[in-house]
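Researcher: Next entry in the queue.
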Amino acid sequence: MSGALARLVAERARACPYVAALSAGPFGTVTTYLPGESVPGVTVRDDEIEVSVVASYGSPLPKIAAAVREAIGDAAGGRRVNVTIADVRALKAVETDERGSP
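Model: Structure for this entry, 102 residues:
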């Protein structure tokens, strides 16, 4: 169940405006490890869900965190949702990353 939930949380968080990417954090500490795969940027615990994002420049960071919490919504199943803004990227850097060009 936590694997499916972690993937759903990651999908919803990435879909939020001004979320450029998810971040595993230092040393990969914000990651759900599953057999044969991992979900970086999301950790699901019994009482909380931790999400670490890279924001794109242009919106107040508290609004981005609130949007991520709202997007996760009912999927949290009553767990507290903690959102960390791990980094902020310039819009140009985000656009370049999405095209795959340096």
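Model: The chain has three helices and six strands.
Researcher: Noted, moving on.
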